[in-house]
């Protein structure tokens, strides 16, 4: 059995033979099938699972996998040699079926290979007579499915997570005055109001419903508490809606544990809701190399880098660590220098100007009402809270004297419930945008799997202020594992 330490040493050995194993699921003539290919001749051993499988030497070209921290889908293309004997593959069903890529030495048993990618097929094409091409997306495509279910009478059943203020329920039983606010159990329905006035109600928390004691005179709204309140908890719940259980082990240690509130009444894709949750805490949700859901967010590399000289060898970016879910950038123990670059080339891909301020909307009112919708006796303070869409947390940067055209971004809606949490996040984002930021593009000769999105590396180069070495965060990554090359975007 090859240990992780032995595998890491093999990755660093530039003379080692590199073998890629592709296991691609499809439906052929109505039957599920798995196509097994490689970039060299390989047969699994009798003791492997599955045993004695021949992986045909068909993979051509430089297999590459791309992903970025801005949330865009990772993609790749697999080129397959076709001598006419695989023409029938074009008639198979590839779209949406999973694919895994394993990486190891051709002398090893399959059990010693490591999975380096998990993807979803986007279909098979034949760009020329001697080649098939299989395009693939990362597993985020699996989350592009509707989040809401439909009631017996055809209404969309709302989804409530965390702490929800002034939500409008659906009426599912007009005769018995039964309303529903969630398709599942709740912790509490803390208040039910008719035209802004609290009314008597009987709750069925297990079903996410309540019953009024008397017919309402106007709009019925309510306040809800549901147990999935942090960003990590919400992501787990939403992933469960598509029965996806591959979760990064450190997701629950994401540093922002502020209570959030989400209420959904119109049909929305699960993936879009997960993006809304992640964006609230200044993060993106991404799959790691094993397809596990994780959270990653930008942070100032200089504020978290270890002292000079502390980085030696390989660290968090190594095999199996591309799944960090803490959201706090991993300090990769990998140092990069000009000698590691292909032809010593580096460029400035983009420049991000400072921002004058950050404005975050919080404590969302999920059903803003006008004065005519409220009863006359509603307290003025309460009436105001039922009418405003949200509250604002603002953090400013004193940059106008130096950067007179510094941007004043629009208000960003979040799911924060408490003012203190929204203000803390606004302050964090403003500090990040108080100075110009740059994204540097380079191609490095690196051992495969030695670095991951969100890692912070120490980079030394005679250009662009890196001459003494400086930390930078990996925000873009294209890996070509068989070639020991990585295209990097470094943010600083």
Plain-language structure description:
The chain has 492 residues and is mainly beta. It contains six helices and 30 strands. The chain has helices spanning 4-12, 231-241, 270-280, 301-304, 380-387, 419-432; strands spanning 19-28, 31-38, 42-43, 54-57, 59-60, 65-68, 75-81, 98-104, 114-128, 131-138, 159-167, 170-173, 178-180, 188-194, 197-198, 201-204, 209-212, 220-225, 261-264, 283-287, 293-297, 331-337, 341-352, 357-362, 391-396, 412-413, 437-445, 456-460, 470-480, 485-491. The chain has a nine-stranded mixed β-sheet with strand order 3-4-2-1-8-9-10-7-5, with no helix packed on it. Strands 6, 22, 23, 27, 28, 29 and 30 form a seven-stranded mixed β-sheet that branches. The protein has a five-stranded antiparallel β-sheet with strand order 15-14-18-11-19, with no helix packed on it. Helix 2 (231-241) runs antiparallel to helix 3. The two termini are 40 Å apart. Residues 309-328 have low confidence and may be disordered.
Describe what is shown at a glance.
This protein has helices at 4-12, 231-241, 270-280, 301-304, 380-387, 419-432; strands at residues 19-28, 31-38, 42-43, 54-57, 59-60, 65-68, 75-81, 98-104, 114-128, 131-138, 159-167, 170-173, 178-180, 188-194, 197-198, 201-204, 209-212, 220-225, 261-264, 283-287, 293-297, 331-337, 341-352, 357-362, 391-396, 412-413, 437-445, 456-460, 470-480, 485-491. It is mainly β and 492 residues long.
């Amino acid at each position: 059995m090859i240990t992780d330490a032995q595998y890491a040493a093999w990755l660093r050995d530039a003379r080692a033979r590199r073998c890629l194993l592709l296991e691609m699921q499809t439906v052929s003539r109505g039957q599920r099938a798995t196509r097994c290919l490689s970039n060299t001749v390989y047969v699994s051993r009798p003791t492997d699972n599955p045993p004695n499988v021949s992986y045909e030497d068909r993979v051509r070209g430089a297999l590459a996998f791309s992903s970025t921290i801005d949330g865009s889908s990772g993609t790749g293309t697999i080129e397959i040699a076709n001598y006419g004997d695989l023409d029938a593959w074009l008639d198979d069903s590839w779209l949406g079926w999973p694919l895994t890529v394993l990486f190891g030495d051709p002398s090893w048993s399959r059990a010693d290979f490591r999975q380096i990618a998990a993807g979803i097929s986007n279909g098979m094409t034949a760009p020329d007579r001697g080649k098939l091409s299989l395009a693939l997306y990362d597993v985020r495509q699996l989350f592009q499915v509707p989040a809401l279910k439909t009631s017996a009478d055809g209404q969309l059943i709302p989804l409530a997570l965390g702490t929800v203020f002034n939500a409008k329920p659906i009426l599912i039983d007009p005769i018995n005055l039964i309303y529903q606010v969630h398709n599942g159990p709740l912790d509490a329905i803390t208040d039910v109001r008719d035209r802004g006035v609290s009314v008597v109600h009987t709750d069925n928390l297990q079903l996410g419903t309540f019953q009024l004691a008397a017919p309402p005179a106007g709009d019925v709204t309510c306040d809800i508490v549901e147990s999935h309140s942090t960003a990590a908890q919400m992501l787990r719940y939403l992933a469960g809606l598509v029965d996806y259980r591959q979760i990064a082990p450190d997701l629950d240690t994401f540093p922002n544990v502020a209570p959030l509130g989400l209420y959904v009444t119109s049909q929305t894709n699960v993936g879009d809701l997960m993006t809304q949750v992640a964006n609230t805490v200044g993060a993106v949700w991404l799959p790691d190399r094993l397809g596990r859901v994780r959270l990653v967010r930008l942070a100032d590399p200089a504020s978290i880098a270890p002292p000079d000289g502390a980085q030696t060898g390989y660290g968090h970016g190594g095999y199996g660590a591309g799944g960090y879910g803490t959201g706090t950038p991993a300090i990769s123990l990998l140092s990069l220098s000009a000698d590691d670059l292909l032809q010593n080339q580096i460029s400035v891909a983009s420049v991000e100007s400072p921002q004058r301020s950050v404005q975050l909307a919080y404590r969302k009112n999920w059903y803003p009402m006008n004065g005519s919708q409220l009863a006359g006796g509603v307290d003025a303070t309460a009436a105001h809270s039922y009418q405003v869409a949200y509250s604002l947390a603002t953090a400013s940067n004193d940059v106008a004297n130096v950067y007179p055209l510094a941007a004043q971004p629009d208000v960003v809606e979040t799911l924060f419930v408490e003012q203190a949490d929204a203000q803390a996040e606004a302050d964090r984002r403003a500090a990040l945008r108080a100075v110009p930021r740059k994204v540097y593009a380079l191609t490095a000769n690196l051992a495969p799997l030695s670095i991951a999105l969100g890692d912070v590396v120490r980079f030394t180069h005679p250009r662009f202020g890196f001459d003494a070495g400086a930390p930078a965060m990996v925000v873009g990554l294209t890996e070509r594992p068989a070639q020991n090359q990585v295209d990097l975007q470094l943010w600083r």
